[in-house]
Design brief:
Its EC number is 1.11.1.7. By secondary structure, the chain is of the alpha+beta class. The chain is built from seven helices and six strands. The strands form three sheets. The protein has a two-stranded antiparallel sheet with strand order 1-2. A two-stranded antiparallel ribbon has the order 3-5. α6 (about 90-95) packs across α7 (about 100-115). Protoporphyrin IX containing FE binds near residues 11 and 76.
Length: about 160
């Protein structure tokens, strides 16, 4: 996840997606960076205004994205959370010091991501919304589906396989 997020070394994001963060006055954002970004992203306007995801080299695939995170200058909350006192801090630090490691692990993760396959045919049912459904005779719920109570209703959040 950390390596893949490094894709944010290029590209931009729209104001409405980072507005909360830059106006939060939180401790996980550099005050100067927040103030600069506020200029291009007003509180009540400019939803579509763009800012670079990597403020240093927005058009180069490099490791500045990780260096920014260490300085609390990640644009999106989902970027900064990778360096916020948690278990991924050490990976961010490592990538910020070792660009070739970042690049090779990014490539590896991209290949893995390309191998993710959706369930098709009889392999399962993907439910778009949380639904209640009655237990049907001859149908077993997979272990992914927690039971609600004894009323005969289960919560469908995963796959249902026929016996
Ligand atoms: C935690 C997972 C991720 C989250 C929450 C996330 C979120 C976002 C958001 C909110 C934007 C801005 C979109 C906009 O303003 O319209 C963005 C842009 C972008 N993301 Fe991600 N992203 C994630 C993972 C990835 C991954 C895995 C890749 C590629 C491997 C990626 C590549 C990009 C690129 C290149 C842009 C810039 C697009 C542009 O400038 O047109 N992101 N992402």
């Amino acid at each position: 996840m950390v390596a893949l997020s490094g894709a944010h070394t290029i590209g931009q994001a729209q104001c409405f997606l980072f507005r909360d963060r830059i106006y939060s006055n939180g401790s996980d954002i550099d005050a100067g960076f927040a103030s600069t970004r506020r200029r291009g992203c007003p509180v009540n306007d400019g939803n579509g205004n763009l800012a670079p995801l990597d403020l240093v080299t927005p058009n180069s695939f490099d490791y500045n994205y990780f260096k920014n995170l260490i300085q609390k200058k990640g644009l999106l909350e989902s970027d900064q959370v990778l360096y916020s006192g948690g278990s991924t801090d050490s990976i961010v630090t490592e990538y910020s010091n070792n660009p070739s490691k970042f690049k090779s692990e990014f490539a590896e993760a991209m290949v893995k991501m390309s191998e993710i396959r959706p369930l098709t045919g009889q392999e399962g049912v993907i439910r778009r919304i949380l639904v209640l459904f009655p237990k049907l005779p001859g149908v077993v719920e997979s272990s992914q589906i927690p039971q609600t109570d004894d009323s005969g209703l289960g919560i469908g959040i995963g796959t249902v396989a026929e016996e």
